Amino acid sequence: IGVTSSGLHANGISLVIKRALTLPEKLLTKLPNGNTLGEEALIPTRSYVALVEALLEEEVDIHALLPGTGGGVSKVAFDKRAFSYRIHTWVEVPALFQFMRELGVSLESCLAVFNWGIGYYIFVPSSEVSRTISIGQKAGYQLTDVGLVEKGERKVIFEPE
C-alpha cells in the first residue's frame, strides 16, 4: 500500500536545483499547478506517525513499514529475500516530478531518485488491504493499493507509465 507524499521529501533536491539553474527563471519558474519550482521543492515532509499509530491501535497485521525516501521506488525491494514487487497501480504524480520529466529527466532516473508521489509504504497481507486503507483514510491520509509481493527474483516490476 502506498501513502501519498506531500512532495519532494528532500530526496532529489540536488537534481531539482541542478535542473532549475538551467532555466531562465530558475527556482521561480512557474509549474502548471501555479506554484513555483522553489515552492514545490520546499513543501515540508509529511509525518506518518499518526497513521502508524492508528494502524497499531486497530491491530493491523503489518509486515513492514518503509519510508519512500532514499532510493526512490526501487527502495521497495528492501527485503533481501527472493521477492518480486509488482506495482500495478500508481498515485497521481506531483507537478514537480512531472516537470522534471518535461526537463528531460528519464522515467528510470525519476523512479530511482524521487518518491514519485508515494512517501510511505505499508506491507500487509492481502486480507488486510481494504481495512488498512480505510483506517488510513479515517486518520487523514490517502492510501492506495499499488501492488503485491510475489515469490521470485528480487526486483521491482513497475507496470504503470
TrEMBL record:
GO terms for biological process: 'de novo' IMP biosynthetic process; adenine biosynthetic process. One of its GO terms (cellular component) is cytosol. Keywords: ATP-binding, Ligase, Nucleotide-binding. Residues 1-156 form the PurM-like C-terminal domain. SUPFAM superfamilies: PurM C-terminal domain-like (SSF56042). Gene3D superfamilies: PurM-like C-terminal domain (3.90.650.10). Its EC number is 6.3.3.1. InterPro entries: PurM-like_C_dom, PurM-like_C_sf, PurM_cligase. Pathway: Purine metabolism; IMP biosynthesis via de novo pathway; 5-amino-1-(5-phospho-D-ribosyl)imidazole from N(2)-formyl-N(1)-(5-phospho-D-ribosyl)glycinamide: step 2/2. It is an enzyme of class 6 (ligase). It holds the Pfam family AIRS_C. GO terms for molecular function: ATP binding; phosphoribosylamine-glycine ligase activity; phosphoribosylformylglycinamidine cyclo-ligase activity. This is phosphoribosylformylglycinamidine cyclo-ligase. It comes from marine sediment metagenome. The lineage of its organism: unclassified sequences, metagenomes, ecological metagenomes.
